[in-house]
Design brief:
The structure is a homodimer of 331-residue chains. With 331 residues, chain A is of the alpha/beta class. Helices cover 25% and strands 26% of the residues of chain A.
Chain lengths: 331, 331
């Protein structure tokens, strides 16, 4: 195959606070594929809150391509497991082309859903919500559930699974448009804009009997308010703490209500999505059924072109997305 | 039986901050036992940090005797299960005499240990440490353990069980004398006075590989420091948060490091001692064996007379005890 010029987004300096475009660079790289290489042309790249902590804690090296999920199409291959035109998932990150021996690729088996669903509801985002709520959160039918960042990619799936499980669901979000989306599109019971209200008072109103499961995406003031209103044997699966990620040392605002965990015997537990990999078949079957039944909706916020990937990540950290944040790459 | 005059300590007003003697009153009550009554004369009363939150949260009613553990001797009884002179445990609290039908009494079977051990290492205090560390904390042999309030009644038992389980143990306490006690009497690996040092730096020094189990008795700054140094799959059994109890709403100083729980998949879990009641036989067998082997020591801080019970509780909240705080009642 001929040489390829692939454009990539590198981390060029570590952000102090909210990342800025200056922390990233667009790098052109010439690639000469070998005969045995599988060449993947990326179509969609995933933009996730979990990409932020590695920028500061060192897991993401500087002057290296930004790591992350992506879906691409095989354009050159001598490997029958990864035939030309197949769609494949990788963690190869913010780049236009990806050269692989196949070991880091998973072929995507689409049914009647759009390709991008495999980066959101049917991908790691959906599995995070499903496993975090049902396994880590040990959700029981009919419980009282609070979801922060409820209009985000993970939060919106959590809300809908909790409603399917006949729970009373309250969600927080950062705009009145998102409140409308949560109430009218996702059909949860109570939603509020945390920027213009008291989280504690809203929770008293929305879940007057207290909280059985708080699905934690935000941290800080959200956790402070929720922890004070947990019911006996409540669970707090900790998916993320986006309010802390742009602070020095990823420190959140101080949480002062943790003593409520003692007599109420509350469990708070951090989790990561790979814990749930063994459940992927059941997850896909459940999610596809719920999608067919119209009970699992999803939104996408799509930005265009590799050069906009840093803006997509910064916008995500500012809460500018509803649902999944994606970057679409040019054909 | 003749009338008895029993003196009791009542909560008379709810404290705002550290309780003062004015929040309590000494009340004399005349009791006329019926023929079927079991009359218990209390000998020792237990003084516990867990008595503080009910003073504010309403679980302890005002103008009612202070609830708590006590050991007494039966002085009148027609019930063969509770014979005269038997020692019995109750939760009847700060009072000289207790009238019972037996349903709230447990006869104490002493072996070669002193009676007071049944209010400390062999009582609820010991079971709290044992269950909290081994069950809630899921301690594994050889792990790295941090214990706050390590020279307290529960903390000192936790330290010794962890050493028996071949763990590396660091403990915090509030005086240099207690540091000496922890290192030289209990034989833990590292101890520091949190009032004169940086908890975070001490933990780095004492447990340089990080913390597998943080046995939480204090909250606030202790938790803030420990949570930032938890190892993957670490556990934080939450026994108490004594630093918060005298604050409005039992709010601790703010904890800002909880995002560390996510990628390290840390579990924090509140517990109460009654969860472990089913383990009492195994607990007693283990503890008595360790005591015989000289591997389980305990200290007591004993105050004299029912009139000093409020001072004992206030002193406990100020950290004036080493080991178990007790009140001995006059013969």
């Amino acid at each position: 195959m001929n040489d390829i010029v692939s454009r990539e987004i590198h981390l060029t300096s570590r952000p102090d606070g909210l990342p800025t475009p200056d922390n990233f660079g667009l790098v052109e790289r010439a690639i000469t594929p070998a005969d045995d290489d599988i060449v993947v042309k990326n179509r969609y790249m995933s933009v996730d809150p979990a990409m932020r902590p590695p920028l500061t804690n060192g897991q993401q090296p500087v002057d290296v391509v930004m790591s992350g999920g992506a879906i691409g199409q095989v354009i050159a291959s001598n490997n029958a497991d990864y035939p030309i035109d197949a769609y494949v998932m990788s963690r190869a990150g913010f780049r236009e082309y990806h050269i692989s021996d196949g070991s880091d690729l998973n072929v995507i088996e689409t049914e009647d859903e759009p390709l991008t669903a495999h980066l959101s509801v049917l991908g790691g985002t959906g599995l995070t919500a499903y496993g975090g709520l049902l396994v880590t959160g040990e959700l029981k039918d009919g419980e009282n559930v609070f979801v922060s960042a409820a209009a985000g990619a993970v939060g919106s799936v959590v809300c809908q699974i909790a409603k399917i499980k006949e729970c009373r669901v309250a969600g927080s979000c950062g705009s009145d448009d998102k409140v409308d989306y949560l109430l009218n599109d996702l059909g949860i019971d109570y939603a509020f804009n945390y920027k213009t209200s008291s989280i504690g008072r809203e929770l008293h109103t929305g879940l007057p009997d207290g909280i059985d499961v708080y699905f934690e995406n935000v941290g800080g003031k959200h956790l402070d308010a929720a922890c004070g209103q947990m019911r006996p044997l409540g669970r707090i699966p900790v998916c993320g703490m986006i309010s802390a990620y742009n602070n020095k040392g990823a420190r959140s605002e101080g949480v002062t209500t943790l003593s409520n965990m003692i007599y109420n015997r509350v469990t708070m537990k951090g989790f990561v999505v790979y814990e749930f990999n063994h459940m992927r078949d059941q997850f896909l079957a459940d999610m596809r059924q719920w999608m067919r039944e119209g009970r699992m909706k999803y939104e996408e916020t799509i930005m265009e072109g590799i050069e906009n990937a840093p803006h997509a990540l910064i916008g995500l950290l500012e809460g500018k997305n509803t649902g999944k944040m994606l970057v679409r790459l040019a054909d």
